[in-house]
Amino acid sequence: MFFGCENLSFKYGNVEVLKNVNLEIEKGEFIGLVGYNGSGKSTLLKVMSGILQPYSGNVYFKDKTLDEKNRIKIGYIFQNPENQIIGVTVEEDVAFGLENIGVPREEMIDRINWALSIVNLKGLEHADPNTLSGGQKQRLAIASILVMEPEVILMDEPTSMLDPKGRNEIYNVIKKLIKMGETIIIASHQPSDLEEVNRIIALDKGEIIFDGLKDEFYSKNIIDVELPFKTKLEKELHFRFQKLVDELCQ
Ligand code: ADP
Question: Where are its TM segments located (predicted)?
């Protein structure tokens, strides 16, 4: 298995918030994780990135159980970028993780340049992160994860605190990451976040209630979510086209 979990359960104290979750994720998939507030999306992503422990069941990455060594390959992007930013400058912030694992200076510079160019923050290396816009801060948080060369990126409602401009900036980065073949799971309420997703996983009270293709999810009204613009347009056009065909064939 490239990435996934088996019989995964998690409790906060005595309260079980993930119940027997089973998931198999292939390399290069772009997946939307949906569910009402409190359904366990954030907890699932945190457990699967190794941030939250202990849990029962298993998380797998490349056929091995997740441990202190391989969890570095799973990147987690917080809902609020402020939780992730620690550097005094943009460059320092991106360098932080690399310094921790002792990457040589030359390689560090190359990797920082690469990550900042993907998120379009080149030129702001010496800026104070506090002076950045919301979208820029979230892009910085993404760069700090990308620089570690993760093989899976878990995004926890990454656009929910952003204005439409900031959201668009994040979509452009996500589109780039998809093209690069990254494996991404995005938890979201924003219909527009799910525009490019193929597969949807829906959680309810800590259990998976749907895991399948996006079109099937939206056609079944499994939970009450707003449709992404493209899906809405497709449905509307299909409906109008059908009406036209009916009229012409009368
Ligand atoms: P979602 O991301 O879908 O909104 P969460 O994973 O944040 O859901 O929350 C799942 C459940 O766990 C909710 O009932 C929430 O109140 C509870 N919960 C979340 N974080 C904590 C915590 N740190 N301590 C105790 N309960 C928590």
Answer: none
Interatomic CA distance for residues 213 and 223, integer angstroms: 15
Pick from 25, 30, 6: which is nearest to 214 by CA? 30
ipTM of the assembly?
0.98
Number of folded domains in the chain? 1
Q: How far is the CA of 40 from the centre of ligand 1 (A)?
A: 6
Band of residue 224 on the pLDDT scale cut at 50, 70, 90: confident
Q: Is 159 in the pocket of ligand 1 (CB under 6 A)?
A: no
The 74-77 sheet, strands edge to edge = 74-77, 152-156, 183-187, 30-34, 199-204, 207-213
Q: How far is the CA of 44 from the centre of ligand 1 (A)?
A: 10
What is the per-residue pLDDT for 49? 97
Q: Which domain holds residue 154?
A: 3-249
Give residue 108 CA to ligand 1 midpoint distance, Å.
36
Which of 9, 12, 44 should be mutated for ligand 1, with most atoms under 8 A from CB?
A: 12
Q: What is the CATH number of the domain that holds 228?
A: 3.40.50.300
Cα–Cα distance for residue pair 235/242, rounded to 1 Å:
10
Give the whole-angstrom CA distance, residue 148 versus residue 41.
24
